[in-house]
């Protein structure tokens, strides 16, 4: 890919994480306020957890009628998923990029493994598919973190 090389007097795009700079070096305005970001930070795990819980409950009932036990299983699964998501998001911020990627890969593989094991397949197949997903997520996140953080570090080094 071709990238434009910043010249003297133009913006290099450095700034805080998630915030770029405008053409004159001033920070770009944040479109959403702190309250909206806080709401999105907590709405994301809850929403994904509810979808995951519904999916797990649908697999668990195997096409039968919806029962109270099935609803309880779905909500407990959603709660466990949302809590683990928040804990992993909090812990992953403190890890180096490799550990961050491995933690999210393990979470994705475990989440898929739980759903896949509930469908009644052989355990070996479940483990292999979960490990493949965990490896793919880890590899893609390592690549993403290395390319983004290296670019940010290079930009910061050029401005100092």
Task: Tell me what you see in this structure.
- The longest helix has 37 residues, at 123-159.
- This protein has helices at 34-61, 68-92, 97-118, 123-159.
- α1 packs across α2, α2 packs antiparallel against α3 and α3 runs antiparallel to α4.
- The protein is flat, with a radius of gyration of 21 Å.
- It has 160 residues and is mostly helical.
Secondary structure elements and their pairing?
Layout lengths: L33 H28 L6 H25 L4 H22 L4 H37 L1
Helix pairs in contact: 1-2, 2-3, 3-4
Helical content (DSSP H or I, runs of 4+) = over 70%
Secondary-structure class: mainly alpha
What fraction of the residues are assigned to beta strands by DSSP?
Answer: under 5%
Order of helices and strands: HHHH
SS field, number of helical segments:
4
Question: Rg to the nearest angstrom?
Answer: 21 Å
Give the CA-CA distance, first to last residue: 26 Å
Structure summary:
The protein has helices spanning 34-61, 68-92, 97-118, 123-159.
Features:
160 residues; mainly alpha; 4 helices; flat
